[in-house]
Amino acid sequence: MRVKLILPSLTEAHSPFFRPVKYSLFPPLGLATLAAYLDPDDAIVLQDEHVEPLELNDAPHLVVIQVYITSAYRAYAIADRYRAQGAHVCLGGLHVTSLPDEAARHADTIFLGPGEDTWPQFLADFRMDRPQPLYRSTQRSLLGAPPARRDLIKRQLYLVPNSIVVSRGCPHSCDFCYKEAFFQGGRSFYTQAVDDALAEIDRLPGRHLYFLDDHLFGNVRFASALFDGMRGMGRLWQAAGTLQSVLRSGLLERAVDAGLRSLFVGFETLSQQNLRAQGKTQNLDRDYTAATRRLHDLGVMVNASFVFGMDDDGPDVFARTVEWAVSQGIETATFHILTPYPGTALPPFSFASS
Known about the structure:
The chain has about 350 residues and is α/β, with parallel strands linked by helices. The chain has 13 helices and 14 strands. The strands form three sheets. Strands 2-1-3-4-5-6 form a six-stranded parallel sheet, sandwiched between helices. A six-stranded parallel sheet has the order 7-10-11-12-13-14. Helix 7 (about 195-205) runs parallel beside helix 8 and helix 8 (about 220-230) packs parallel to helix 10.
């Protein structure tokens, strides 16, 4: 069977007004993971339009497209083209889960939520000529999941080819986050077995790693065992964690001993009122300055995340936030605009009510 897995490009990736380099950071590990469930004799092609032109004159039997809100129109155009050629087209990802009726108009099969449980079932159905139009994830587990087909990834085209994901979701539920929408109907935070995660790390060449997990420290028992197992590997790595995990005694030190050198931290806002309104209770009454100092004292760079546009923000929020970040010696920062993406707890935006 000929199978084509596609990550369409975000609009910004080809715009002269944005830096395409931003969108060639990480390879599409989700698609590479789905490829691992295919048979050894299947002919598989994985293409990421962020780093290479798509070959659209081929003739796959099965096409799988990962869809984000910013690439939805492009994804639908590709899907329509392949359907017209007779291929069976599957759509999945955050946008499909949030707006399934929209996506279904451009697909033979759509997937809602993570694919570890539904993708194998679809493949069995497809090979028996009885694929269903919709598969909804309910059984959430990474135990026994095959390692991603990294041989299909063109490593030389990415800035950070050694990216890795060893968990799914996050134990927290912030209103502006996609997590609850994507993981509805089942567990919203779960991890690999520690030995499987360590084996995946061991397979990666070079020294540097980038964990793309939403919250690598979210399961303390798992994180502790992972960091203990990584100690002595000689790796240097970065990840994401919360203020809670930074301020918790012991776990951060284990991470540093295992090679942690940079941490993405969701500060989000300097306003306690905003934190309450957005359900980000894990940040409430936390000492931002103490967390930043603790990371720096341990030799860890801080990549701070902030969100602008919350109800308690005034016109001075931009200057105040940047001034605070600079005063703390924060090395890098990411600034977001609060956006009510489909499926999140945020109400739809209205200029009349803003």
